[in-house]
Each structure stands twice: as structure tokens, then as C-alpha cells.
Amino acid sequence: MNILLLGSGGREHAFAWKIVQSPQCGQLYVAPGNAGTANIAKNIALSVIDFSGIHQFILDNSIDMVVVGPEEPLVKGLVDFLRSKPDTANLPIVGPTQLGATLEGSKDFSKRFMQRNNIPTAAYETFTAAQIDAGLAYLENQNLPIVLKADGLAAGKGVLICLSLAEAKESLKEMLLEAKFGDASSKVVVEEFLNGIELSIFVATDGKSYKILPEAKDYKRIGEGDTGLNTGGMGAVSPVIFANAEFLKKVEEQIVKPTIAGLEKEKIDFKGFLFIGLMNDDGNPSVIEYNVRMGDPETEAVLPRIESDFVELLKGIATGTLAGYDLKISPDYATTVVMVSGGYPGTYEKGFPISLPSDPSASIIFHAGTSENPEGKLVNQGGRVIAVTGLGENLETALENAFNTVEKISWEKAYYRKDIGQDILKLMN
């Protein structure tokens, strides 16, 4: 198969790494890709939201399947666009339609979907600028802390946890009246704060059947001990000890099954990955949010644990034949440590040459924000630069393998968290 993969981050390098292992992959193209995908596939200088360019590339290169990595093209309707063209109407695509992608594109839409389908989630109300007085009054009757979420896509930065009533009121005004997150906060979801431990569940679905992929826990804050600003993710661990068989059964019965049934009942065409952010509150799951693609950096910890043919999985999703796919998962651990540019998630400098080890034994180096400079040297190009995944029979070994490789990678002002996985090790011991 000739496959077109859209995206440029660590998630897409992990996808590419897994796709090219399949005997079913002929030529893999990645648009726009990064310096890591360039080593195993053919990078194409195409934006993920250049729908006409993507359509023409599909025709010119006899593409047999499209795999959409990030959320933006899905929320903007890429799948609908390609389906509206007679020559790509029946092309297998991994990714939901625009309506399906609204589960991520609008927090209010997804909360209402959960309510209609009796899926456990935090209590909430949604407000617009015209309802600011009602929103401020609502806050006065809520328990603290309270969560404020920008309704639209805000690059992972649109969620605020407010510890005081004054902070909550000020933040609500900034979001609604001062467009703190631009158009994304033209509506704000005010939500009950959930206690417990967070984790992510990943579901592959063709809209009717589903397969639950390995779960993962990620680390969102920049500082050790989960301090400082939120980032796109500083690391991940899979499997997760507090997601035991009993808990995962509850997730399947109370969340996954009603979600897939709800999509079908509401005629929402969803052929892709559903990333369900969960809170485990004393063994009971609640949905924090839906995303309509795989997570990053969780993908870099999840995909190495899938032992069955990954292209076969993608094909099953895109062609409605997922029920016949035999998913095989390794019992081993995968732990991912993300290396970032100094200053991220604020301002940071680009263009520093990166030194990589020639032999990252028992670990995999995934590129995220990398490129080659005019001299052909590997340099940092983004905030999150490299994701190193260590593998091992147990968590200690997997972490040791990840950090051993991380210590051999360098560029000026590089930073990473040294405490990834340590909280889970404490729970295990």
C-alpha cells in the first residue's frame, strides 16, 4: 500500500516507525514530517490543512490510505472534503468526519454527548460572553477548586484549575471578555474538579467495532513533581498499575461501549482513534475529555507495545473491518521521556545542533521538533524536540533504558524531567 501520513510530531514519527514495519506498507509519505520521519519515509512539504494540496497529492501518487495524525485537519473537515471529491470519495481514511472531530473541537459538544449517553463525567455548565453575569453567579455556588475550559482548540493550554473564587471569576472574565484563548474561549465550560489519578485510554474504532489499545499515563507539567506550566506532555508510561483488570472492565462497560453506541445512534461517522482522558477516583472512572486522535507523547509509549500488524489495524479502522483484527499487546513496559528546548512552553531558541547516540540500546528515539539546517546538521526546531522510549520487562528497567539514552543526547539548553514514572514506582513499592 502507498500510505500518506499527516503530521510532524513525535506521534507521527512513532506512527511512521510502526507502519514501515508492516509488509503491507509499500511507500510511506509523511506530510510535512520531521528529520526522524525523513530517515524511514519520504517527507512531503505539505501543510496538514492544505486540503486541495493533499487531494492532488493523493491522486498524483496513487495513495491507498490516508492516516491523519493531529486534530486540526480533522476539526476543520479534511475527511468530509476528501469524501466530497468523486476520485477520493471511497479512499480509506483513518480519522473521523468533522462532526465526529467536534468531540475534541468543542468541549461543550462533548459534554452534552456524554450527558445524552449516560457516560460518567464531571458536572458542568457552559457560558458565553453574553452570559458573563450568570457565569460569575454560578461560580459562587460551586466547590473549589473549579475547572475552566476553553470550548475550542487551544493547543493544550485552554484548561485552568482555579483554587480560589477570585481567581475563577477573574479567569472567566479574561476568557470570555478578553479572548484569553482567542476564538477558543468564546464559550467556556465551567466544570467540577475531579479527584483521583489521571490516565489515558486509547480506542481504535471503525464506528461499530472497537479495540482497546494499551493505556498510558502522561506527565503534563514542565517541572518535576508536576509543578509549573502545562505543556503538550513531558513523558508517558504504559502499562499503568492503577488501571487493573477490574478498573479497565468498568471503563469498557461504562465509557467505551456507550461512547461507540452513542456515535452509532447519533449517526456520527467515526473511523479513527478515540483518546479518552480519564480520572480514576477510587476505582471509578470519569471522563475528563475526548480527543479524536492518538495522544502525544502517549503514542510513543503505546505503539511499541502493539505486537500485531499495525497497518492491518489501520486498514480495519478505515474500511469498517476492525472486528476481524486480532490485537496482540506485549506485557512489557514502555516509558517515554520528552526532551524539550530550554524555555518551553514559553519562548525558546531554535537551531542548536543535536548530538544523538549511534546505538540507543533497548530504547527508541522518536523525533518531534527536529529539522536539518542548510549544512545538513540535525537541529531543534520546536518546543518538544525528542521523545526517548525505553523498553523493559518491568518499569525500573524501562525507565533506566530511557534515561540512559536521554543522557547521551545533547544540544544547547536542552531540558527534561528526571522524575517521569517515579510516582508509579512508589505505588508499586
Automatic annotation (TrEMBL):
Catalytic activity: 5-phospho-beta-D-ribosylamine + glycine + ATP = N(1)-(5-phospho-beta-D-ribosyl)glycinamide + ADP + phosphate + H(+)
Similarity-based family: Belongs to the GARS family.
PROSITE patterns: ATP_GRASP
Gene that encodes the chain: purD
Presence of keyword Iron: no
InterPro entries: ATP-grasp, ATP_grasp_subdomain_1, PreATP-grasp_dom_sf, PRibGlycinamid_synth_ATP-grasp, PRibGlycinamide_synth, PRibGlycinamide_synth_C-dom, PRibGlycinamide_synth_C_sf, PRibGlycinamide_synth_N
Highest taxon of source: Bacteria
Protein name: Phosphoribosylamine--glycine ligase
Record domain ATP-grasp: where: 111-319
Pathway info: Purine metabolism; IMP biosynthesis via de novo pathway; N(1)-(5-phospho-D-ribosyl)glycinamide from 5-phospho-alpha-D-ribose 1-diphosphate: step 2/2
SUPFAM superfamilies: Glutathione synthetase ATP-binding domain-like, PreATP-grasp domain, Rudiment single hybrid motif
A molecular-function term among this protein's GO annotations: metal ion binding
